[in-house]
């Protein structure tokens, strides 16, 4: 079996519409190596009597005498016939290979351009609306690539059929062509060139289809993360607003009755426990922003400001609760029933 087959992007859901032929799983663009035969090769052009046949020598087998005029003419005619047939085959070969070289080069150029266009779609912006727009753009891009699939596979299959009919010796180095280049060497060079073009085209196609799938996943995952971080920030903002509303109702420590201090301390501890889950929410949005940055997706200015405000408000709330709890506990210690101040006043 050959180690190289025409590429198929197995992860692309619509890949089966490109081509349904089972030949794609078995065809191969590898050069086929000629194995030298031990027996003499027959004439390539189907010519009849060989110029070296002993029947053409003065009637005696194996004799080294001069050829008769008739035999010499026959030999010369055969040489001209072989030369003519070989030239005709080469011209037909060149015409066929030329019809493949142009579409193969066009495919290579088109795939290279699409690869650049795909790269230009990155990096993604850290905004839900912009990523949703990019998702639509990439979907249209993938459809454009998919629609080209049948034509690309058709040309690659034609190249495969051509190479199976005109194999070349893999280990043989290509030669620069001159007017003295043999017809066989010219055929070898043309076959090798078609094989190289087909190999490049198939590799570019495989790379592009794989990148399309990867980028689709990247866009989907980024959109999910942005939606999650956006929803989490909205929820945190609402929760912080409620907590800040409660904080706004706190009375100054000096205005509190001494005997109510224990109640205020207990109420503040319950308040702190009630809003402690916000800590996990704040950690979540910060982690999501970090994961996005690692994948080269940075939050938009608006989202960055919103995240910064979440962190600032959460920190201020924690400081406020900590400071008020300390003040209440200090006041209770200094002015409560067990304090020296309380005893001196009784």
Automatic annotation (TrEMBL):
It comes from the Eukaryota. GO terms for biological process: synaptic signaling. InterPro entries: KCMF1/Dystrophin, Spectrin/alpha-actinin, Spectrin_repeat. GO terms for cellular component: plasma membrane; synapse. Pfam families: Spectrin. This is Dystrophin-related protein 2-like. It comes from Lynx pardinus.
